Amino acid sequence: TDARFADLERWAGRLDAVVAAFPEDREIRLHEAMAAVNAINRYGEVGVKTDARFADLERWAGRLDAVVAAFPEDREIRLHEAMAAVNAINRYGEVGVKTDARFADLERWAGRLDAVAASSRKDIQIRRREAHAAFNAIKAYGKAGQANDARFADLERWARRLASVAADFPEAHDILLGEAMAAVNAINSYGEAGLKNDARYADLERWAGRLDSMAANFPQDRDFQLHEAIAAIYAMKSYGEAGRENGARFADLERWAGRLDAVVAAFPEDRDIRLHEAKAAVNAISGYGKAGRNADRARWLVRLGVVADAFPYDLEIQQLATRYAAALPRRSPPGLS
């Protein structure tokens, strides 16, 4: 409720009184920085729908600047500045997909993050925020690139930044997983662009290679392999749609199905991975159906039925199967053979 921001500002007035009484107190000013991070996040969240709220985000950024200026060497305060930058980059990126001018604000906040990270290259907590910001930027520029091809250059620029963080912390599982998630987003974005510009499929496959190299280091890591399965959904969807105009693209769909097979074989009981197998099957069924390749469509219907039979009480998987209930091979009710 937008009216509640008046209450936020009323409480900010109370904080003002405390800070005015103890302007040199580091603990109090740290809490002022924390309050600024929260306000920046909330105003940014609303700004995605109500652009005028970004002025409030920037007003609170000015307040955070004052705290940083008072304690420029304080690591914890600078960490909160990095957190604020992540939030702002995320929100401006979301808006930039529709309003390209907002990407200038994203990059302005990236400059603030640069200043924090430059003096803290070995601080994993701050660099984690840099990696998170890079992931958000890659996602936003990837979406924008589907309509404005030039934005893919920005995606690649931020990808290099993320790769740099990952290289500095090769043992940090969460940072490496974030890089894999970014690869999935890039595969999705280039796949969508490939439907209009076939040359973009080379970029999809280049990112698939990056994902390969990441996942190869974690062959038994369920989280990495899950993202391999998600990437397969996106690639198969795009190649399936492209197959209507260019039947040769169905070979690419099946190649990605082979990648998915390897993940399923390693984690046959994992519900989330098998759910993504079902989603991939739906994409293949749709692509082959629209192209009139009924034998291939029937083959994927069988696969969807196999997943549904393996998880008879899973609502989401069963809902996917229900879309094609009339066409699926006859199946026994749960609990019967």
Model description:
With 337 residues, the protein is mainly alpha-helical. 76% of the residues lie in helices and 0% in strands. The protein has helices spanning 5-21, 26-47, 54-70, 75-96, 102-118, 124-145, 151-168, 173-194, 201-216, 222-242, 249-266, 271-290, 294-310, 315-322. Helix 1 runs antiparallel to helix 2 (26-47) and helix 6 packs antiparallel against helix 7. The radius of gyration is 24 Å and the shape is elongated. The N and C termini lie far apart (54 Å).
In short:
The chain has 337 residues and is an all-alpha fold. The protein has helices spanning 5-21, 26-47, 54-70, 75-96, 102-118, 124-145, 151-168, 173-194, 201-216, 222-242, 249-266, 271-290, 294-310, 315-322.
Provide the fold topology:
Layout: H1 5-21, H2 26-47, H3 54-70, H4 75-96, H5 102-118, H6 124-145, H7 151-168, H8 173-194, H9 201-216, H10 222-242, H11 249-266, H12 271-290, H13 294-310, H14 315-322
Helix-strand string: HHHHHHHHHHHHHH
What is the end-to-end distance?
A: 54 Å
Find the structural class using helix and strand composition.
mainly alpha
- Number of β-strand runs: 0
**What share of residues are in beta strands?**
under 5%
- Total number of helical segments? 14
**What is the makeup of the main sheet?**
none
What is the molecular shape?
Answer: elongated
In helices, the fraction of residues equals over 70%
Cα Rg:
24 Å
Ranges where pLDDT stays below 50 over 5 or more residues in a row are: none
Mean pLDDT, to the nearest integer, reads 94
